[in-house]
Write a structure and sequence with these properties.
Number of domains: 4
Strand order of the largest sheet: 9-8-11-10-12-13-14
Number of strands: 31
Strand content: 15-25%
Structural class: alpha/beta
Largest sheet: 7 strands, mixed
Bound molecules: coenzyme A
Length: 694
């Protein structure tokens, strides 16, 4: 195996989460110390394998025999926790290599997070050379409930379940452990990633992909070290991601229009969409989504809401509409099925309102019918606390019905009220039925079921971007040799056209006669003429743009008057000639490409004009991507309806897709590309103006 074989490392993670033998290096008998807490957690959590505390001074800690080095341990060691001060970590790791340890978690701080990059690289190199799966350093450890293993200095108790939480922040993971206990949300794993020197999100997702104890992965991320590696993650299970820290660094570094519209958060959103991750913006929503995604997938789109309060029902209806979810709409059928579950003044329109007077039995009956009927694909139960009905009794009835129906479809609950409702929520969560106090969070979590359904039905594309064409490469090399950092318009056109970007008829002329001949020959009229000069940035300010030229005579006159004006307004500029471009009509779009520091080249699409200037309505994809992603990318902009035959203006969407794919061929060779505008009409998409920065 090669030293850095990720598959071996991922296999070795099995020994980290399911070890038979553990060494805790730096175990201490002093209760205030991290090494004591970890050993104590391992013992108290009922880990069934062999535990070896490693301490140079003690012979026994917490009743367990100690060894002074891993090398003295009489049996094999699968996994070692390292909690010794930073200067000793490397030598302990080398001992682990000698002992053939498969995985480690380095708790110790004092590495790259305080600038000690070389020290971190040293331990990463040892791990790579020996295929050791190394978590951390600077982590609080992890908990894995299926093997009763708490290898952390966090809280002792974690309820078992099927969610794997991967957190970049240790403190946050610790606090979430407490929060999930309070909410009674069960976890399969809580992993603190620390500095991610070796094992990061990709490796853990790919490990949990094949772990039958994990049904959903929930990630808290602040940033990614290697975006391009992250983009190769194989997603097999639902992954919910909460990402904080949306810095503007990427946007500031970029010079072009596309650059100013990117900004790393937009690129992260693109990356998550492209990979098929479900993004959440609050912890409650993220947990709601994770819990819902542990339930069976809905067989169709029709959602039914059962409530005892009109207000909460209306709020849920609003949220369903906001999130694009479909409510079951069959009034006659609903009346026939649900009338018997409520008093006369109840409502059988979806939401089914069993009314404030509707007690436990009303809920039981309504839930039973909803679960039994195939027409109902997903169920939302809402409850407002009343003095008449005990929420805990409602919870018990719903849980019984759900279990009796063999949990056959997704169910989400919202309970609004006081302490009794809180207990009811805990009871639901304990029984793996997601329940919260907020309708919005419930419905947004529920929506993730459909998002995942959509993601998992996507056809996996094998994406290969063809090499840059020789012609485009030649143009770029020529400009580089001249010492310029950007291509002029005609050069940008040549390069992009070679890649497959479609241009309106265009030409470059140095004399009035040549301009007239080019336009005549290709029947280019009406034509836009623009001055070509490396010294002029704002062409119209110096009289360097003339539109709507309709004949050879107009062309000659336009050339001469432009030259005269520009020479007068910009006497020091070297004038190379004029760019000629056929004027085309249609919808104005913008396509661009720039480089993100983490993810590399990313392509942008948006509608032009105010959509891009004011609303910044653009979407991105990380290179490389295929036809499916390009199509989804177009569908992500808010103004997408404009491209769907708005006011009879039919546009050729396939040609936009082609442009987005074509621009990728140049992505690794230049810094930024702007096609602004890309005019789209029924015949195709035409790059009316183009700019490339090297
Ligand atoms: N082999 C075996 N035992 C060793 C050892 C070695 N090479 N080097 C040290 N030890 C023992 C020490 O003797 C001590 O045991 P003792 O209490 O019986 O004397 C124990 O390991 C711990 O070493 P100590 O020097 O007391 O360090 P410490 O406990 O104060 O700190 C860390 C060690 C790792 C906890 C500390 O360096 C650290 O990094 N703390 C931050 C951890 C953190 O916050 N992580 C991120 C969370 S998000």
């Amino acid at each position: 195996m090669s030293p850095e074989s990720p598959s071996v490392k991922i296999q070795n993670l099995k020994k980290v989460f399911n070890p038979e033998t553990i060494a805790i290096v730096g175990a201490s008998s002093e209760p205030g110390k991290v090494g004591f807490q970890i050993l104590n957690n391992v013992i108290q959590n009922g880990f069934k394998g062999k535990i070896y505390p490693i301490n140079k001074k003690s012979t026994e800690i917490l009743g367990v025999k100690c060894f002074s080095s891993v090398l003295d341990v009489p049996t094999d060691i699968d996994f070692a926790v390292i909690a010794v001060p930073a200067p000793f970590v490397e030598s302990v790791l080398k001992d682990c290599v000698k002992k053939n340890v498969k995985g480690t978690v380095v708790i110790t701080s004092g590495f790259s997070e305080v600038g000690k990059v070389a020290e971190e690289k040293a331990i990463k190199d040892i791990a790579d050379q020996n295929n050791i799966a190394l978590l951390g350093p600077n982590t609080f450890g992890f908990v894995y409930t299926p093997s009763n293993l708490n290898a952390s200095f966090g809280p002792q108790e974690v309820a078992s379940g099927s969610i794997a939480l991967i957190s970049q922040s240790g403190a946050l993971a610790i606090s979430l452990m407490g929060w999930t206990m309070m909410q009674k949300i069960g976890m399969a794993a809580v992993v603190s990633l620390g500095n991610k020197a070796d094992i990061g999100e990709k490796e853990l997702i790919e490990y949990f992909n094949d772990d039958p104890n994990v049904s959903v992965i929930l990630i808290y991320m602040e940033g990614i070290k290697d975006g391009r590696k992250f983009m190769t993650t194989n997603i097999k299970k639902p992954v919910v991601i909460l990402k904080s820290g949306s810095s503007q660094r990427g946007a500031q570094a970029a010079a072009s229009h596309t650059g100013s519209l990117s900004g790393s958060d937009k690129i992260y959103t693109a990356a998550f969409n492209q990979l098929g991750l479900i993004r959440s913006n609050t912890f409650t929503k993220a947990f709601c989504a994770a819990c819902v995604l542990s339930l069976p997938a809905p067989k169709g789109e029709d959602v039914l809401i059962i409530t005892n309060g009109g207000g909460i029902g209306v709020s849920a209806t609003d949220e369903c509409e906001n999130f694009g979810m479909k409510l079951l709409d069959d009034p006659q059928w609903l009346e026939a099925k649900f009338r018997e579950t409520m008093p006369d003044f109840g409502s059988t329109k979806n939401p089914i309102d069993v009314t404030g007077g509707g007690g436990c039995e009303s809920y039981r009956k309504a839930v039973r019918i909803a679960l039994a009927e195939d027409k109902v694909h997903a169920l939302v139960v809402l409850y407002c606390e009343t003095a008449i009905t005990d929420p805990v009794e409602v919870a018990k009835a719903v849980i019984e019905e759900y279990n009796a129906a063999k949990r056959n479809k997704p169910l989400m609950v919202t309970m609004m009220g006081g302490d009794r409702s809180r207990h009811a929520i805990q009871l639901f969560n304990e029984n793996q039925i997601p329940a919260v106090t907020e309708v919005r969070e419930a419905i947004s979590g529920f929506k993730s079921l459909y998002t995942w359904k959509d993601i998992s039905s996507r056809i996996k594309e094998k994406v290969t971007v063809p090499e840059i064409p020789v012609k485009a490469k030649d143009v770029i090399e020529r400009v580089r040799k001249e010492g310029r950092s950007y291509l002029m318009e005609h050069e940008s056109r040549e390069a992009l056209e070679a890649c497959g970007v479609v241009m309106p008829k265009w030409g470059f002329a140095t004399t009035a006669e040549e301009a007239a001949q080019i336009a005549e020959k290709s029947n280019m009229y009406p034509v836009a003429m623009k001055i070509a000069s490396v010294d002029i940035i704002h062409k119209s300010d110096v009289g360097g743009v003339i539109l709507n030229i309709k004949s050879a005579d107009e062309m000659r006159a336009a050339f001469n008057s432009m030259m005269e004006k520009v020479k007068k307004n910009a006497p020091n500029a070297k004038l190379l000639g004029v760019n000629l471009c056929q004027m085309v009509e249609g919808l104005q779009c913008i396509v661009g490409m720039n480089k993100d520091p983490q993810f590399g080249p990313a392509v942008m699409f948006g509608m032009g004009g105010i959509f891009v200037e004011i609303l910044k309505d653009v979407s991105f994809r990380i290179v490389p991507f295929g036809e499916g992603e390009a199509t989804r990318m177009i569908g992500e902009i808010k103004a997408k309806k404009m491209l769907e035959g708005y006011r009879g203006q039919v546009v050729n969407k396939a040609s936009i897709v082609k442009t987005l794919l074509a621009i990728q061929r140049i992505a690794n060779h230049v810094k930024e590309v702007d096609i602004n505008p890309l005019i789209v009409n029924k015949d195709g998409a035409f790059a009316v103006d183009a700019r490339i920065i090297l």
